[in-house]
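Quick one: structure for this chain?
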Amino acid sequence: MATEVLTKPEKKSAEKKAAPPEPDTKEAWRGFKPGLWQRDINVRWFLQQNYTPYDGDDSFLAPATKRTKGIWKKLTDLFVEGFVPLESFEEDRYVYRERLRAIIGERSKRAYHLGDRVRVRLDRIDRAGNKLQFAVVEP
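Got it. Here's what it folds into:
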């Protein structure tokens, strides 16, 4: 009974593929401001010096997934509509502007429009009147 041993054929040196060229790391950092990040790991400094705000719109975003929409639905079911008295705005004096359908801070010029969603805290519970009074929590 004869046994045959199979071996891999040897590659000729001409068939060897050349290794891909190493990327030029200096080229990758071109355009960034030089500074501390070049000798130390200093992410804070790097971001402060090289950050550029995005002034475009949200057209690059993908639409929400079915799962995201489901989570959002659960959250919106937890939202509460209520009344926030103007007196609860302690940091500024707000005045209602009918034309804008909004209250505007006289000093801050911060605007809250009718129907805006805001973060609130529960200020008072009126058990007799079955009412909740809220105050806006500034962002």
